[in-house]
């Protein structure tokens, strides 16, 4: 029987949830507001919240100085490309580990996760030399490869968790009906795991979109995504907060919109397996 | 028309269409600051004069730029044809043979017009390895109204004693006015730039002639103690997080009586569009202690060509344009004399129009009073005023900067910070083979 929750309790919980939500969202809101201020207003003390002279000057300057569309397209191609390539590799890997686990499956999973514990800067020079020798510096292909490798452990782990929830008997039944391995994975497993794959895809698109070490270090002018676009507005000498905020708002807008429309899948993806 | 003629016509048309794509493309890595962005905006002038050269820009924040270009040049990545680098990198990279010599720039470039102090920092064994785009030193920027209220008058060349007295007299913590704003944020180019230059004027040095670290000297103790006491009495709260931009914000919003920092800040604090105290700002040389050295630094953002680029000729043409006298005139014509990149050419400071800019003379005097080849009271084996031009310096100075920032935050005492600095520096210098 469901527990009855009093209205007072509901109100308090809702209030706390809103407070936490607003606290988390506040830096983004402040960035958006600052993008409409002048540089002088951006540093004014005490700061003004809404009562300031709103201006589009920063957006105009950012638009004049940088090719937003080029950076945007680079971000789209790199994040989608690396996620799709990662999924293509991770689905068979997760299938084998979930349904035909070996003695060392758990160790392999832990080993894959352990690669995420290495600070990226530790392998910057070897990767840079490899990229130089293969002509991959400042190319989208190079970034797709490196971001695939970086996010692969997370993709495999997420898919493994989803696949473990699917009863192996269903796949056995498919096999009994004469399904080949390909048909089993593509026509039986994948459709059942669509919500899990969608969550993995969304989360990894976001991770790749926000990746700001390799995208800054392996690109120059051609393949630089929006992370490089934002970084170009930070300045050691001179006021830049308003312009940086405008660049940041433009860079996060697409991913915010994507996140808004796919929040159901995202929440499901992040909480999957948490409540059983 | 015969088939041959048609084919010939088609080929000609294709060649014409394709010709812009044959233009040589220069990739320029630069730092995001006002002067560089202005150069990017005015680059149409260069491409109009050189239609066979296209420019591609990569603008980055200083630390990102440094990491990016260092990785690229050290691995011969070949991503950039022109790099913006600082006075710290030029001697190290020049010695390594990583940069193309600029000694063959045309006579009209007038290399002798470059300010001697700046040129000296970019020249190794007679070879000029980078052309200065703008140069800077550091100086005192102060509020004339607050100084007057305190009943004091700022001399052109103040002593540290005067600065301490004035800072304490100008401080009004109840109204959030602090006598002095100084860098406290940890970093070799942040608090250590200021503290190294300050220490020079107290008679301190990083190393003796045999590369032995000197943080256990009385001079370093005096310099650090003076700084910590002054910031305790007259500095803003949370100063250990303040770098250039944080102090700029404080000064522009009227919260600092004095600010000792880069001369390039002068154009920001006197700009009425951004600064609430624009009409009240005065300038003075960085302070001294009567030992013959002032606490000011010397820096130049310069353009250099990485060795191995396939586009050396085009890159030289660009550098010639961007650091020429004509470029300074172009900026003056489009944006006014106050926005001309400062600190590179003698002729600029002889120009009567530029002499009218309020901070011009003090900037030149500050630059001229710094000597990167002879930066300290006692002799040293290194080049550099606010840095030591050895590859190990970035790492050591960042760690030392963290120790000093901890002292400023009150987490450790001055003695503990200095002992820590001495240990850090000794360890690295031993590992690197400078000392045994």
UniProtKB/TrEMBL annotation, chain A:
It is found in: Cell membrane. The chain crosses the membrane at residues 12-33, 68-96, 108-131, 143-163, 184-209, 240-261. Residues 72-262 form the ABC transmembrane type-1 domain. Belongs to the binding-protein-dependent transport system permease family. Keywords: Cell membrane, Membrane, Transmembrane, Transmembrane helix, Transport. The keyword Membrane applies. This is Carbohydrate ABC transporter permease. It is a multi-pass membrane protein. It holds the Pfam family BPD_transp_1. Its main location: membrane. It comes from Roseibium polysiphoniae. InterPro entries: BP-dep_ABC_trans_perm, MetI-like, MetI-like_sf. CDD domains: TM_PBP2.
TrEMBL record, chain B:
It is found in: Periplasm. One of its GO terms (cellular component) is periplasmic space. Pfam families: SBP_bac_1. It comes from the Bacteria. Residues 1-23 form the signal peptide. Keywords: Periplasm, Signal. Belongs to the bacterial solute-binding protein 1 family. This is Sugar ABC transporter substrate-binding protein.
